[in-house]
Amino acid sequence: MLDLQTHCISAKDVVDLRSALAYLSTIPNQLLTTEEPVDPHAELAGVYKLVGAGIPVAPPTRIGPAMLFKNVKGYDMQVVTGVLASRERTALLLNSSVERLAFDLLEALNHPIAPVVVSQSQAPCQEVIYRTPDLDISKLIPAPTNTVRDAGPYFNLGLLRAEDPETGEADVTIHRLCVQGPDLLSVYFVPGRHIDQFRIKAEQLGRPLPVSISMGLDPAIYLAACFEPPTTPLGFDELTVAGGIRQRPIELVDCVSVPAKAIARAEIVIEGEILPHERLREDIHTNTGFAMPEFPGYLGKAQLELPLIRVKAITHRHNPILQTIIGPGEEHTNLAGIPTEASILRLVENSMPGRLLNVYAHSAGGGKYLAILQFKKSSIRDEGRQRQAALTAFAAFSELKHVILVDEDVNIFDTNDVLWAMTTRYQGDRSTIFIPGVRCHPLDPSQSPEFSPSITTEGISCKTIFDCTVPYHLRDKFKRAEFMEVDLARFLG
Ligand code: MN
């Protein structure tokens, strides 16, 4: 069993999942541990929905602690979920703050550190090794199904790492993996993802693509892996950003069964090959028609033709912990959103320095659809630049749908304050800018021709700017009431 007495009393000591959990266990209300037996089939996710998932999971839900299930029915393996399901906790784990997270990620992006390869004896992820044909994924690892309508059991925090068959350049990305047989996984790539481009190249050469799937990781690795183009173009190894966050290289190890490399301090690694010219329907074994809950909060449709991974080996640490995310909610928001914030900050800062003070990729959009920009107008010549910043944000991140602009005196992380700005500094007919007919993200169900005549095909959307900043020439009328500055410590003892 996990020994949470492991000495880890600061975020600087976090090198992997178990040191992260040890650190969280020293902080009140950040890690809930249960010995109660739990079924990985739908029950585990059902529990966490109530404990800590957060919106867009349907109410009742809330932002809460991470949760470690020590007793998973039918398995000798623990499961943890919600490690990054609060912005405050994410900040703690990265030795940052709620407000500074995106800036610290940007700093790491500007000071990347390349990973290093260590020997097997230095790689805890290979303490225990199972090879085909003596392995059965379903017997070894308690992959959860998130709802009873899921296509099957999923690994949702499997970090795939593969290399370009032509250039050797590496990429790491999280992709959902459905267990399809004792040594078979299906993998879903949103079109254009980098490892899918490697897979297509390998397939055109008639070759399988070797991959490692690392699970249970230092949170810095998961966050860095969620950067997307244009910030991290094809050929950019996101692990260099994780190294930048930790200011030391991430350690890789050679896989034992395929020519690939895995995260040396992972809890569990699945090694395998993406098979050329093989496809499978995602819900082939269950016929539910659905995949799993997607980040916008709706149940996603099962994919008709997914590439397959033939597993060659499973390796893990002693007493491994499977890490999972239940789909939508605050954990997805942080994983997708904080890298998005960093990307928007960088692009706007490059084009108009000093004006964009901060960005929040809000939970309502799962970190992708909705961004709140805090903008400072210093003179009348800045009037209108806030809208240019919004347009730049759309350019930085094509899946962004709504941008809310607020002034420097509004707390973008407090939705009450943002809606206050939308109430008292916004007039619908002058403060709203519609940009119809732009491609967005296919998982928003309102982006459909049935919903609006301006939408010609699925995935087209009306991007919208809600400009809740005060027109510069009227700024004197919008001063918030000032209260006396006090020494609060005197009153709180
Ligand atoms: Mn990439």
Low-confidence segments, ≥5 residues, pLDDT <50? none
- The helix count comes to 13
CATH architecture of the largest domain: Roll
Helix fraction by DSSP (H/I, runs of at least 4): 10-25%
Q: Which CATH C-level class of the largest domain is it?
A: Mainly Beta
Radius of gyration: 23 Å
Bound molecules: manganese (II) ion
At the fold tier of CATH, the topology name of the largest domain is Pnp Oxidase, Chain A
Quick one: biggest sheet? 9 strands, antiparallel
Average per-residue pLDDT, rounded, comes to 96
Q: Which range does the strand content fall in?
A: 15-25%
Which class best fits the helix and strand makeup? alpha+beta
Number of strands: 23
Q: How many separate structural domains? A: 2
What's the shape?
globular
Distance between the termini: 41 Å
| CATH homologous superfamily placement of the largest domain | Electron Transport, Fmn-binding Protein, Chain A
Keywords:
UbiD C-terminal domain-like, 13 helices, alpha+beta, Pnp Oxidase, Chain A, nine-stranded antiparallel β-sheet, binds manganese (II) ion, five-stranded mixed β-sheet, 25% strand
